[in-house]
Amino acid sequence: MGLFRLAVDTPVKLMGTTYTEGSFLWIVNNIFFQYYSLLITVVCILVFIIVSYATKQPDYAKIGGLTYSTLTAEDRRESRATWTTKDLLLSLLLIALIIAIYAYFTG
Fold first, then answer.
1. d(CA 77, CA 70)
2. Helix ranges (DSSP H) in the chain
3. Which residue, among 84, 82, 1, 83, has the nearest Cα to 39 in the 3D structure?
4. 98 has pLDDT over 90
5. What is the mean pLDDT of residues 9-15?
6. Domain-embedded: residue 66
7. Are 43 and 1 in contact (CB under 8 A)?
8. Is residue 27 part of a domain?
9. Partner of 25 for a Cys bridge, out of 2, 19, 37, 102, CB 3.0 to 4.6 A?
10. Quick check: is 61 in a domain?
11. Contacts by 30-33 with C-beta closer than 8 Å and gap 24+?
C-alpha cells in the first residue's frame, strides 16, 4: 500500500500530473499522509489476525529458543557462555555513544 501511494504521488510531485477530481487516484493522492498511515496500520492488523486464525498453531518444540519468552535456562546459560570482556566493553561503549548523541542533539 505504501508503494502504491508512492507510485500515485510521484507523478504529481515530479511531473505536475493531475488526476481527475473525484477519481480513485485523486482520492489516494489527496488523503492526508497520516490518515493513509493509519489505514495501512489497520490493514496490517487485520492481516495479522486473519493469518493467525487461518493457520494452525506452531509446534512449540520447533520454535523454542527463538524469542526471549521461549528461552530455557539452558539457552540462557549457553548464550552467556559465549560473552567475552570485549563484547561487554563494546556494548557499554555503544550505550555511551547513544547517550552522547541523544544529549548532543536534544540541545
1. 14
2. 2-15, 24-30, 33-54, 60-63, 73-80, 85-105
3. 1
4. yes
5. 91
6. no
7. yes
8. yes
9. 19
10. no
11. none
Q: pTM for this structure? A: 0.55
What is the span of the domain harbouring residue 92? 72-107
Residue type at 73 in one-letter notation: A
Residue 4: pLDDT above 90? yes
Residues above pLDDT 90, as percent of the chain: 70
What b/e string do you get for 60-99 counting C-beta neighbours within 10 Å, with b at 16 or more? eeeeeeeeeeeeeeeeeeeeeeeeeeeeeeeeeeeeeeee
| Number of domains the chain contains | 2
Task: Provide the residue count of the chain.
Answer: 107
pLDDT (average), residues 33-46: 95
